[in-house]
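Open question from group meeting: does this chain pack into something compact, or does most of it stay loose? Before anyone orders reagents, we agreed to write out a predicted structure and look at it together. Recording both the input and the output here so the notebook holds the full record.
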Amino acid sequence: MAGDAKTIARPYAEAIFARAVETDKLALWSDMLELLATAARDPALSGLIASPKLDRSQMTELVLDIGGGRLSDEGQNLVRLLTANDRLSVLPEIASHFESRKAEHQGTLDVTVTTAFALQPEQEQKLSEALKRKLGREVRVSSHEDPELIGGFHVRAGDLVIDGSVSGQLHQLANELGI
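Structure tokens returned:
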């Protein structure tokens, strides 16, 4: 379903992105989509979305209530449209695709750095500056720990992957030795 969800979500995200650019409301749409995606990821709500316990009007009202006053008229219309088309479950994918398009539009790139040990803020800053020089774009770095790397780092920036980890080097060596 994951591939299907992305395929289903893309046209919605593209239309929302085009409207957000047209009305100069990228930040508002980003906030609304994050709120809706977080709600759709909640196990209780995702269970209701998948079950026939609520009819479409009840589901619409429930999601609009969850949104409270944080949804604009257009945001509320999106909820109604997604509910009518049984697409509420793809809200996380819509939000993800929207954020990717927004970052591309703003010339930024989200970079995920995985290290064996936690990065210090100054290390993260130096890495951010180096990646900015290399990629020619603003970067937003998020770092995670994975002790299985043993040492070094693993960087993912869009399609670019840099594996400078000890475990990656050991795997490469094992492949070269045919082990």
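Observations to bring back to the group:
The longest strand covers residues 108-115.
The chain has a mean pLDDT of 89.
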